[in-house]
Amino acid sequence: xxxxxxxxxxxxxxxxxxxxxxxxxxxxxxxxxxxxxxxxxxxxxxxxxxxxxxxxxxxxxxxxxxxxxxxxxxxxxxxxxxxxxxxxxxxxxxxxxxxxxxxxxxxxxxxxxxxxxxxxxxxxxxxxxxxxxxxxxxxxxxxxxxxxxxxxxxxxxxxxxxxxxxxxxxxxxxxxxxxxxxxxxxxxxxxxxxxxxxxxxxxxxxxxxxxxxxxxxxxxxxxxxx
Length: 226
Fold this sequence. Notes:
This protein is mostly helical. The protein is built from 14 helices and no strands. The protein has helices at about 10-25, 25-35, 40-50, 55-65, 70-80, 85-95, 100-110, 110-120, 125-155, 160, 165-180, 185-200, 205-210, 215-225. The radius of gyration is 19 Å and the shape is globular.
């Protein structure tokens, strides 16, 4: 009789983590197609998913480039959005207790989904299981679908199928669950939109995205207890 490689007490966490991996990983197709449509090569697109590996940052970079912004502005906006992961790392470090090379791998895997799945578990042991399985699931499917989307996007005429709409549509799909459930998130979104729309007519492409990050500071002030 074959023994399962997954302990019975871990099966629910593994199942849920892989479910998140498949669902979130599917968005990689949209990123791959949008990235190629914005002018990046398939190789550059795949390297962004392999090395940057945070959906919001990747879509922000491609969005700035697609809008005519400079690579510097695109990377600066991406770094600002990705900096939130350092806060996640501070929360996860005592739970994961990793050293050496595993610490570098854990840093790459510290994203919204792996953090949420880890902290939602009842014990640190289950938290570690959920973190690694969520990271593995999202990373695998995201990179596979990025390649598929990039290859597909390079074989068709982007303008003919409306791939210019992929970036905002996919970005909104990633944000929608947070906007439905979080008061702070809605405040950030509203303030960021006001800042961005106000600057679009008078600043170069990429600047509105960078400036809208100031909404984080405004939302923080609005959310502070009086």
